[in-house]
Amino acid sequence: MVDVLVIGGGNAALCAALMAAEAGASVLLLEASPREWRGGNSQHTRNLRCMHDAPQDVLVEAYPEEEFWQDLLKVTGGLTDEHLARLTIRASSTCRDWMRKHGVHFQPPLSGALHVARTNAFFMGGGKALVNAYYRSAEKLGVRVRYEAPVERIELDGERRFVAAWVKGERISARACVLAAGGFESNREWLREAWGRNERGEWPADNFLIRGTRFNQGVLLKHLLDDHGADRIGDPTQAHMVAIDARAPLYDGGICTRIDCVSLGVVVNRQGERFYDEGEDFWPKRYAIWGRLVAQQPGQIAYSIIDAKAIGRFMPPVFPGVQAGSLPELAAKLGLDVGTFMRTLQDYNAACRPGSFDHTRLDDCRTEGLAPPKTHWARPIDTPPFHAYAVRPGVTFTYLGLRTDDTAAVRFGGVPSANLFVAGEMMAGNVLGKGYTAGVGMSIGTAFGRIAGTNAARAALTQGQDHAVA
């Protein structure tokens, strides 16, 4: 019998496996994907949001706890557990040395349009390099890894203690278990069930693209909630959902499919109308609301419109957009009603008030008398050539999950399990009720992966000692 069974293969699972192994436990990690696709959504990540009170290694200036908390409070609209959120924030300030010990390298501070050199530490080589480093370190520590090993169900005893997991008909027992198998974003049937039909009779979920892994089907999450009655947290329609290139692949498009020019222009729906404030806040704090906004539009599609003045001020998309020498020509190329589109752009241009444009700060360029307004970076779209990028909702991970506490234990009727723990996307809804700010998913996964691994090892080794005494 193994001491600790870790179910999942991304950042949170690997952090749990490494911590458990460091504590002296024998560890088996079950990854549903083949080896070449290992790492879940973590392989597509780039950075970790970190609290720090002064300049540190790859982080400039300071990003204190209270500012991090206020950023999180703003994007979640208060739908967050403050105790667990602050635990995550504090843990983010001390994890980098541990990560380096396991082979993770960080880039020097970045500058440019993303404005995150102060708040986020970027991984050298991205998420794939981080995942590979962790797997190499796990192997050195004696962690056994099985690929193509999707867990169908788990066994619990009458006291809600973990007993065993089932993989392709095989029963695998362990003294403790960490659940880190991701959300249900790749389960189209569950997405359809959650979102239902809209007032136009559409199934919005049918037009969602999945930015990450195809292996996050939510099988274990549904099993724990429906079959074992685990305490739940979160809304099944809430997710890290980004407006991404409508030409992106169905799965694994990752970061390169994001369209980052939204705050520098306007966004119109299929009817040629604006529907939200494009300049509400810095893009890293607001980009993850745009997928949901587009999901609420007809046909779940929208178009980000910019002119020549915006070029060079945002991370360029992988594929070029639609280009035209005039706005009517652009509307025609997009298949939009030219008259409605032109009224929208003319109203916007007329509402722009002069100011000191600066895309690196919350400037004073705004609209007046326009609904919805554009609060910052509002400049007339009047300089050809004009560009448009069609966008659709890109789901990264879902927020429905298992309720937990600061021990990372899975709870049943408010009572924490003695040996079943959870980390990563399966519990992120405790901190993220809605919204997102760049890098916080990795902060949550790293903090709770480490907590879950430590406590699973403690539970397993204590149980082993009890058996030895008996």
TrEMBL record:
GO terms for molecular function: oxidoreductase activity. InterPro entries: CobZ, FAD-dep_OxRdtase_2_FAD-bd, FAD-oxidoreductase_2, FAD/NAD-bd_sf, Succ_DH/fumarate_Rdtase_cat_sf. SUPFAM superfamilies: FAD/NAD(P)-binding domain, Succinate dehydrogenase/fumarate reductase flavoprotein, catalytic domain. Its cofactor is FAD. Residues 3-431 form the FAD-dependent oxidoreductase 2 FAD-binding domain. It comes from the Bacteria. The keyword Oxidoreductase applies. Keywords: FAD, Flavoprotein, Oxidoreductase. This is FAD-dependent tricarballylate dehydrogenase TcuA.
